[in-house]
UniProtKB/TrEMBL annotation:
The gene coding this protein: pfkA
Superkingdom of source: Bacteria
Subunit structure as annotated in this protein's UniProt entry: Homotetramer.
Role: Catalyzes the phosphorylation of D-fructose 6-phosphate to fructose 1,6-bisphosphate by ATP, the first committing step of glycolysis.
Binding positions for substrate per the UniProt entry: T125, I126, D127, R162, M169, G170, R171, E222, R243, H249, V250, Q251, R252
Name listed for the protein in its UniProt record: ATP-dependent 6-phosphofructokinase
The species this protein was found in: Alkalibacterium iburiense
Top EC class, one word: transferase
Short name of one Pfam family: PFK
Necessary cofactors: Mg(2+)
Residues that bind ADP: R21, A22, V23, V24, R25, R154, G185, A186, E187, K211, K213, K214, H215
Active-site residue numbers: D127 (proton acceptor)
Keywords in alphabetical order: Allosteric enzyme, ATP-binding, Cytoplasm, Glycolysis, Kinase, Magnesium, Metal-binding, Nucleotide-binding, Transferase
Predominant localisation class: cytoplasm
Enzyme Commission number: 2.7.1.11
Length: 320
C-alpha cells in the first residue's frame, strides 16, 4: 500500500489533530503518501481531498478540534453514498483509509472495507463510550476541563451555601460524570447506568447540611436528563437553593492533555502499520495500557461499553 487517506467524523475531540499528525508522519516515514479528507464522509463523497505533507501537520499536536473538520453525513449509511466515496478514492488512488471518530464512523469504515477498501477506525470522542477500548481520544482532556469548572463552581457554592447541579456531556454514557464527580469530591453523581431516587437525593442533601456542609455539588450526566429538569424535581421537594450549570461544548475544546496526545499518536502510528500490511475492517483500542486491534463489526455488535462503576461505589463511600 502506497497511498492512504485520513478523515475525522462525528463530534470533534481534543487529540484528533495529534492522531492525524501521527498518521501523516508515520506514513511518510514508511514511504507512503497521505491524503487528508475534509468534513468526514461528506467530504469523501464530494472529493474534498488534498495531499498532506509534514508541514501540514506541523504545530498541530497541541491544537484541539480537527483541522480536517468534521460533519455528520447520514447518507453514507446507504450503498449509493458508499459507492460514490469509492469512486473518489479510486480517482485519488487511495488504497486504505484511517477513520477517526465514534461508532457511526466505525460503521462507515466497515462498509468501505466490505467494498474492498481496507479501513482502520480510531476511537475519537470525549464521551469514552466506544466498546473495545478503556479510553478514547479526547476523554482525558474533557474530564480535566470539566474538573477545572467544578473546582471553580465549588468556590461559589460554598460562599452562598447552595446546591449546584452540573450537567456534563457523555451522550448515553456516564464516564465523564463518574470521573469528574470523584475527582472533584462531588456529593452525588447521577448517571444513566445507575437508577436514582430523587427523594433520596434530597435526603442526602439534608444529611450533608446537618453534618455542617456548606454546599452540595451534584454531577449529572446528560444521558439522564437535563439539569433544569433535575433541579425542578429537587425544588418540588424542598428549597435547596439549587443552581444549574450546563457546561456544554466547552468540554470538547482546548489543547489536548499529554495523555491524549500520546494515545492519539500511538493509535495513528499503529493504524498505518496495519494498513501497510493490507489489513482493514479493524478498530484500535487501549486495554490495560496495550494497543490492540479488534474486528470493527464484532466490536460494534458483540461488545458493550461499560463505565467503571467501582467509581460510583467509591464516591458513595467517601463523598459524605
Amino acid at each position: 500500500m502506497k497511498r492512504i487517506g485520513v478523515l475525522t467524523s462525528g463530534g470533534d475531540a481534543p487529540g484528533m489533530n495529534a492522531a492525524i499528525r501521527a498518521v501523516v508522519r508515520k506514513s511518510l516515514h514508511e514511504g507512503m503518501e497521505v491524503y487528508g479528507i475534509n468534513y468526514g464522509f461528506a467530504g469523501l463523497v464530494a472529493g474534498d481531498i488534498r495531499k498532506l505533507s509534514r508541514r501540514d501537520v506541523g504545530d498541530m499536536i497541541q491544537r484541539g478540534g480537527t483541522f480536517l473538520y468534521s460533519a455528520r453525513y447520514p447518507q453514507f449509511a446507504t450503498e449509493e453514498g458508499q459507492l460514490k466515496a469509492i469512486e473518489q478514492m479510486k480517482r485519488f488512488g487511495i488504497e486504505g483509509l484511517v477513520v477517526i471518530g465514534g461508532d457511526g464512523s466505525y460503521r462507515g469504515a466497515y462498509a468501505l472495507t466490505k467494498h474492498g477498501f481496507p479501513c482502520v477506525g480510531l476511537p475519537g470522542t470525549i464521551d469514552n463510550d466506544i466498546p473495545g477500548t478503556d479510553y478514547t481520544i479526547g476523554f482525558d482532556t474533557a474530564i480535566n476541563t470539566v474538573l477545572e469548572a467544578l473546582d471553580r463552581i465549588r468556590d461559589t457554592a460554598t460562599s452562598h451555601v447552595r446546591t449546584f447541579v452540573i450537567e456534563v456531556m457523555g451522550r448515553d454514557a456516564g464516564d465523564i460524570a463518574l470521573w469528574t464527580g470523584v475527582a472533584s469530591g462531588a456529593e452525588q453523581i447521577i448517571i444513566p447506568e445507575k437508577g436514582f431516587d430523587i427523594t433520596q437525593v434530597a435526603e442526602n442533601i439534608r444529611e450533608g447540611r446537618e453534618k455542617g456542609k456548606k454546599h452540595t455539588i451534584i454531577v449529572l450526566a446528560e444521558g439522564v436528563m437535563n439539569g433544569h429538569e433535575f433541579a425542578e424535581k429537587l425544588d418540588a421537594i424542598d428549597n435547596f437553593h439549587v443552581r444549574v450549570s450546563t457546561l456544554g461544548h466547552v468540554q470538547r475544546g482546548g489543547s489536548p492533555t499529554a495523555r491524549d496526545r500520546v494515545l492519539a499518536s500511538q493509535f495513528g502510528a499503529k493504524a498505518v502499520d496495519l494498513l501497510k500490511q493490507g489489513k482493514g475492517g479493524l478498530c484500535l483500542g487501549i486495554v490495560k495500557e496495550e494497543i490492540i486491534a479488534h474486528d470493527i463489526i464484532d466490536t460494534l455488535d458483540n461488545m458493550k461499553h461499560t463505565p467503571n462503576l467501582d467509581l460510583y461505589t467509591l464516591n458513595e463511600e467517601i463523598s459524605n
